[in-house]
Amino acid sequence: MQRLLGRLTALYRTTAVRLSAVYLLLFAACAAVLVFYVSSMSEGLLQQQMREAVAQEAEQIERIFDNNGMNGLLRTLERRARQPGANLYIIASPTGEVLAGNVASIQPGVLDTEGWTTIPFRYQRYQEEARGTNRPMAYAQVNVLSNGLRILVGRDLGEPENFRKLVRQALMVALGVMGVGALAIWYLIGRNALKRMDRMSDASQRIMAGDLSQRLPTSGSGDEFDRLSESLNTMLGRIEKLGEGLKQVSDNIAHDLKTPLTRLRNKAEAALAVGDGADHRSALEEMIVESDQLIRTFNALLMISRVEAGQAPAEMSAVDISGITHDSAELYEPVAEDCGLKFTTDIAEGIEVKGNRELVGQALGNLIDNAIKYAEGSDGEPDIRISLARRDNEVVLAVADSGPGVPEDKYGDVIERFVRLDASRSKPGTGLGLSLVAAVMEMHQGRLELDATHPDRENNRGLTVRMVFPVLPD
Amino acid sequence: MKLLIVEDDLEAAAYLAKAFREAGIVLDHASDGESGLFLATENSYDVLVIDRMLPRRDGLSLISELRQRNIHTPVLILSALGQVDDRVTGLRAGGDDYLPKPYAFSELLARVEVLGRRKGTPEQDMVYRVGDLELDRLSHTVKRAGKEILLQPREFRLLEYLMKNAGQVVTRTMLLENVWDYHFDPQTNVIDVHVSRLRSKIEKDFDQPLLRTVRGAGYMMKEEAAV
């Protein structure tokens, strides 16, 4: 019982039920107004008819008196009064004394006014006088005959009264049917909605409890509940991805920041143990290098998370990406050459994209830096090639190296933060370079493509990284 | 040179005061924005070093207020916010240089010195001279002992910046900022490679070195004899 009550309360709280309640009230009010209008109209009509019939009869009686005299009148009235459902007849003296008729008593004063009684009056018939209390009501026409006698012809109100009763009953039945129908519809629609909402809130509870892999149920009908569920699910997917990223980052931070911190601490300890001036100096210098590396990692992390969080720098404008590519190539070319790398460029002129020079420059710098690091010392003729070209609706900035490359199935991994395929981590770097590039590309509504430079080779297939920007709208 | 440091971290301020005094620079310290504004308006300084986040009045509003009062002392902004857009807003507020925390003291010192001498550096000088090296900014030619040295455009700008700040330490990030207009950390030794190429061009056939490496800080153009 308690449960049912709770369910009903919950049902009442649903929007569907509230809406149907409002509709029910509106419909009921309309129906009532309509019924009352129709009934009062027909009642008026009935009364009108009754009045005409009574007036006609009164006239007839007057004519009978004129033609047949008093005796004829009395005979006619007697005959008519005996008929079932007869009208009311009274013949009264000019002073209002009842001389003949089928009415035992009548509300005083009715006979005094000639013409149609506008207000219903009470009366009693002979047969009913004995039975009792209930004095019915009637309308009547009072005429004065040529000899001064008054005659009254009246009709009981029972007929319109019955009609009104009938209309009221019909109204009650209609309202009842409407009410039951609305309740049924409430229950069906509301319960259905309620059930689906319950399922959705159950799923949300589980998600809130920490199981981000849960999704809201969909019925597959594509209705508004499904659409809501679907967009919430998309949102959940994004949140889950962000959450996973965060977890992975904190795991990696724990590892990649603790390692240099440990080294830093060890160096300080070792220097303290030795305790000699020159050793102190070199230890301190090493510690500064180590902490610079830490700062660098922190900066890169902060930058990535800011770019990823969608906090675009204020300065996004049409930038000359050809110029940026030239600048960066020129900046890194001597380094590449010093490392014994062949450095070639193929840069299309005059290309612009919407972006931030600083970020694009840094991303490109990271790519060239990586390429130099990995191509250096590879067999054959190590080289680096930087190219910028417009391809259909995209601008492609590519850095290709002839280093050992990256296995195809690891393309996704190397973009992740702190991932370095070189397990020994012998190459310097934070492991954040490509993550930053990926984040920068996302901010520029572009994408990052990884590919082998020489897919036909056995070794040193190389890595080509392409920054693909959308073309600037004209 | 006289310096005003507005920094709410007292320990950092004490460290800076000691280090600057060792470098021969006199300084005052204010620990909040309002007293910083008061000192900067009342006294005359060569450089203001202002932390971006300060109690009572934040660094950027302090700078805007100074500029509104027509005080154009060079300002170096120190900030824990080191992102591209932070730098841009800092410089827009009227700062002359921006150094993200944490920084190396040598970097701060080099930048403060460059800012402090800026007033005395004749921007309109058409020819820079260090020893027998001559750089003509108008004709874009470089001569050493009367003999022309051919430089790439970027090498020319690099040398121009070094010679403009002759006698002062110029750090690698300062070079990247001023010659390449990039504010990120290039990670590798890109700047060193460019400087060493430039150095080989201007010093190859001469005995006297002009472009010196300052250990742990950067580079300095200086005539050997004047050391």
TrEMBL record, chain B:
PANTHER family membership: REGULATOR OF RPOS, TWO-COMPONENT RESPONSE REGULATOR
Keywords, in A-Z order: DNA-binding, Phosphoprotein, Transcription, Transcription regulation, Two-component regulatory system
GO BP terms in the entry: regulation of DNA-templated transcription
Cellular compartments per GO CC: cytosol; protein-DNA complex
Protein name: Response regulator transcription factor
CDD domains for this protein: REC_OmpR_CusR-like, trans_reg_C
MF annotations from Gene Ontology: phosphorelay response regulator activity; transcription cis-regulatory region binding
Domain of life: Bacteria
Pfam (any one): Trans_reg_C
